[in-house]
Write a structure and sequence with these properties.
The complex is a heterodimer. Helix content of chain A is about 60%, strand content about 15%. Chain A is of the alpha/beta class. Chain A folds into 2 domains: about 1-125, D-Maltodextrin-Binding Protein, domain 2, CATH 3.40.190; about 130-190, Arc Repressor Mutant, subunit A (Orthogonal Bundle). In chain A, strands 2-1-3-5-4 form a 5-stranded mixed sheet, with helices on both faces. In chain A, helix 1 (about 10-25) runs antiparallel to helix 5 (about 105-155), helix 5 packs across helix 7 (about 175-190) and helix 6 crosses helix 7. The radius of gyration of chain A is 24 Å and the shape is elongated. Chain B is about 35% helix and about 20% strand. Chain B has helices at about 15-25, 25-30, 45-50, 65-70, 95-105, 115-125, 140-150, 170-175, 185-195, 220-225, 230-245, 250-260, 265-275, 305-320, 320-330, 335-340; strands at about 5-10, 35-40, 55-60, 80-90, 90-95, 130-135, 160-165, 180-185, 195-200, 210-220, 275-280, 285, 290-295, 365, 375. Chain B has a 6-stranded mixed sheet with strand order 2-1-3-10-4-13, with helices on both faces. The chains are: A alpha/beta, B alpha/beta. At the A-B interface, helix 3, strand 4 and helix 4 of A face helix 3 of B. Chain A: One of its GO terms (biological process) is phosphorelay signal transduction system.
C-alpha cells in the first residue's frame, strides 16, 4: 500500500512516517503542499492521501475526487459513516484521509488509527507551543505597561502591577488587554 | 434569558460579513442567539465540519452544497442552502507580465466588458496558454470561468484552471505558478496592493446576479423545528440589510479587519463593500456598481432556478446526466424554509420560487405578496437565457 502524506513541516512529516511504517507494511511518501499538489500526488499513484485539516492546500486535493482529474482512480474522502467514532476522531485530531476508490475500509482502519494518534500528539504540542508563545508575548506587554506607569507616575514596580490589575478587575477586562490599551494610548500621546 | 449558542464556520473573506456582523452588531442576540464563529482553513474543511455536525451552519460557496447532493467532491451529503449570503463579489486579475501585454495591446481595464477582456486575454496569453487559479473546483468562480471561456476566444487557447486557496493566490502569482486568477475579495485587492497583479474584470460582468455564497446547514438540522433555523436566518437577513446601507461600510470594513481578516487593512476590505476597486498598485480606480450585494434585489432569496443552473453547469463540467442533476440541485436551495421563517417578519416575498435566469436587463418590479419587490439585472455577458421550465436542450 502506498500512502502519501502532505506536510510541509519536516519534523512533523518524519514523525508521521515513522508511526505509519511501524503500523503496516507500506510505502510512505511525504510531499509539500506547494505548487502542483494534485499532479504530484497523482504521480505517486497512492492508495491513501493524508493531510492536516488546517492546511489550506487541502482544497487542491478536491481536484483528485473528480473522475476526470489527474488521477485515473478517483479518490473519496474517508467517511465510512459520517457518524462513526473513527471519522469523528479523525476530524477532531485534524486528519483528512482521502482513499482511492475501492479500497477496503478494514485495510485503512489501522493506518488511520495510527495517524489519528500521531496527529493528536502533534496538535497538542502545537497548542501548547502557541499558548507558551502567547503567554510570553503578554508578559512582555505587561512589563512594558508597568514600565510606562512607573515612569509617568513615579511609582514602584509592585505598585504599577497592582494598579494594572485593579484597573483590569474594575473594567472586567484581561490584564494584558488593559496593558495593551495603555501602550497604545502612550504611543498616540508621545 | 440565556442565548442559544450556535456554531458557524466561515472562510475568511469579505462576503463572510453577514455572519460576523450578525454576531458583532447584535442581530443574533436580538433573535436570542449567540454565534460561535469558527474560521475554517479551507472550503473542504468548512463543508466537512458541517457534514460531521461540528458546526450548525456554514458560509459556503454556492456550488458546494449542490455538488455534495450530486456526489461530486470528497463526500456526498444532504445539505440545505437556507439563504443566499451574497451575490457577486469575484474579481478576475492577471500577473504584471500579462498586464503589460494587455496595456501594449491597448486594453482599457474597464472591468465591465467580458467579451473584450476575453479577446485581449487570448491575445496576451504567453504561448497560447493561460494558467488560471480558482479557489475551489466547486465554486461560482469555476462556473463563471467556464461560461466565459466556452463562449469567447479563450476557447481557442489552452485555458488551464487549477485550484489555489485564496490566501495563497498572491504568492502563486508572484511565483509564476499562475498567469491569472478569479477570486473573492479581499484577495484580488491584496494582489494589487502587493504589486504582483492587476484587476481586469469583475465577476458580475460574466453573470450580473450570481449567487456567490450561501448559508448552509445539514438538511436534517435545517428542517428540525427546534433547531433555531429561523432565528439564525432572521439574524443573517438583518445583518445583510445593515451591510447594504452605504453608511455601514466603514464600520463593516473595520469589523471585518478586526475579527475575520486580521492581516488585511480595513481600507482594502472597504473597496469591495463600496465597489470602488483599485485595479493597479499605481492607484487607478474603477467603480463597479453592485460589486457585491448582501440585500438589494432580494439578494438572499435562494431561487431554485439558481441552484438548477449551478447543477446544470456542474453536470456539464463533470459529465453527469443534466436533467437528473438539475432536479437534484434545485432541491438544495430552500425557498420553502426562506418563506416559512422570513415571511412572518413581514418582508415582501416573490410569488414564484424560480425565475428565468439571465432575462432581466434593467431593474424590474415582479409579482410579490405586497408588490414591493424590484429585481436587479441578472444578464449573462453572452445574452444567454436559462429557463428552468425548459427541458435540457
Amino acid at each position: 500500500m502506498t500512502i502519501v502524506v502532505v506536510e510541509n513541516d519536516r519534523t512533523r512529516a518524519l514523525a508521521i512516517v515513522d508511526a505509519l511504517k511501524d503500523a503496516d507494511d507500506c510505502e510512505v511518501i511525504v510531499i509539500g503542499s506547494d505548487s502542483g499538489l494534485a499532479r504530484k500526488i497523482a504521480a505517486h499513484d497512492p492508495d491513501v492521501v493524508l493531510i492536516d485539516v488546517h492546511d489550506p492546500s487541502r482544497d487542491k486535493i478536491e481536484e483528485l475526487t473528480l473522475a476526470s482529474g489527474p488521477l485515473d482512480r478517483p479518490v473519496a474522502m474517508f467517511v465510512p459513516n459520517a457518524a462513526s467514532a473513527l471519522s469523528r476522531a479523525a476530524v477532531e485530531a485534524g486528519v483528512s484521509a482521502y482513499v482511492v476508490d475501492g479500497m477496503a475500509p478494514e485495510r485503512l482502519r489501522p493506518i488511520l488509527e495510527v495517524a489519528i494518534a500521531r496527529f493528536q500528539v502533534m496538535r497538542q504540542m502545537r497548542a501548547e507551543l502557541e499558548q507558551t508563545r502567547r503567554a510570553l508575548e503578554e508578559r512582555k506587554i505587561i512589563d512594558r505597561a508597568k514600565g510606562l506607569l512607573m515612569k509617568s507616575r513615579g511609582i514602584g514596580e509592585d505598585e504599577a502591577y497592582a494598579l494594572l490589575r485593579k484597573t483590569a478587575m474594575d473594567q472586567n477586562r484581561r490584564l494584558a488587554d488593559v496593558a495593551q490599551a495603555l501602550i497604545t494610548a502612550a504611543e498616540l500621546l508621545a | 434569558m440565556k442565548p442559544v449558542v450556535l456554531r458557524a464556520a466561515y472562510v475568511p473573506l469579505v462576503d463572510a460579513a453577514p455572519l460576523i456582523v450578525a454576531e458583532a452588531m447584535g442581530f443574533a442576540a436580538a433573535e436570542g442567539l449567540q454565534l460561535d464563529l469558527v474560521a475554517a482553513p479551507s472550503w473542504s474543511a468548512a463543508r466537512d465540519m458541517l457534514i460531521l455536525g461540528q458546526v450548525d451552519a456554514a458560509h459556503l460557496l454556492s456550488p458546494i452544497p449542490v455538488a455534495a447532493a450530486l456526489g461530486l467532491g470528497g463526500v456526498r451529503a444532504e445539505l440545505a442552502a437556507v439563504s443566499v449570503l451574497s451575490v457577486n463579489g469575484d474579481v478576475i486579475g492577471v500577473s504584471r507580465r500579462i498586464e503589460e501585454r494587455l496595456r501594449a495591446d491597448g486594453f482599457a481595464f474597464e472591468l465591465n466588458d467580458a467579451l473584450a477582456t476575453a479577446r485581449a486575454l487570448a491575445r496576451a496569453a504567453p504561448g497560447g496558454r493561460l494558467r488560471m487559479g480558482v479557489p475551489f473546483p466547486f465554486s461560482m468562480h469555476r462556473i463563471l470561468l467556464d461560461l466565459w471561456a466556452r463562449a469567447t476566444p479563450l476557447a481557442d487557447i489552452a485555458f488551464d484552471i487549477r485550484t489555489v486557496p485564496p490566501p495563497l493566490m498572491r504568492r502563486a502569482l508572484a511565483d509564476d505558478e499562475i498567469d491569472a486568477f478569479c477570486v473573492g475579495e479581499p484577495w484580488g485587492s491584496v494582489a494589487v496592493e502587493s504589486g504582483v497583479g492587476a484587476l481586469v474584470l469583475a465577476g458580475r460582468a460574466i453573470w450580473a446576479f450570481a449567487p456567490e455564497k450561501v448559508l448552509a446547514m445539514r438538511r436534517d438540522r435545517a428542517e428540525d423545528p427546534s433547531g433555531n433555523t429561523g432565528a439564525l436566518m432572521r439574524a443573517i437577513w438583518a445583518a445583510g440589510r445593515w451591510l447594504s446601507r452605504p453608511d455601514s461600510r466603514d464600520a463593516a470594513a473595520e469589523l471585518m479587519a478586526r475579527r475575520a481578516l486580521t492581516d488585511v487593512p480595513a481600507e482594502l476590505i472597504e473597496r469591495a463593500l463600496s465597489g470602488q476597486l483599485t485595479i493597479l498598485q499605481t492607484g487607478q480606480q474603477r467603480h463597479v456598481p453592485s460589486f457585491v450585494e448582501f440585500h438589494a434585489g432580494l439578494a438572499t432569496f435562494p431561487w431554485r432556478s439558481q441552484a438548477r443552473f449551478i447543477a446544470d453547469r456542474l453536470a456539464i463540467l463533470h459529465g453527469l446526466d443534466r436533467a437528473g442533476a438539475r432536479d437534484a440541485g434545485a432541491r438544495v436551495f430552500r425557498t420553502d424554509l426562506y418563506r416559512r421563517h422570513l415571511g412572518p417578519m413581514g418582508i415582501d416575498l416573490p410569488g414564484a420560487s424560480e425565475k428565468v435566469e439571465g432575462a432581466i436587463t434593467h431593474p424590474t418590479p415582479v409579482a410579490s405578496l405586497r408588490g414591493g419587490i424590484t429585481l436587479l439585472p441578472d444578464r449573462f455577458f453572452d445574452g444567454r437565457i436559462f429557463d428552468p421550465a425548459l427541458p435540457v436542450s
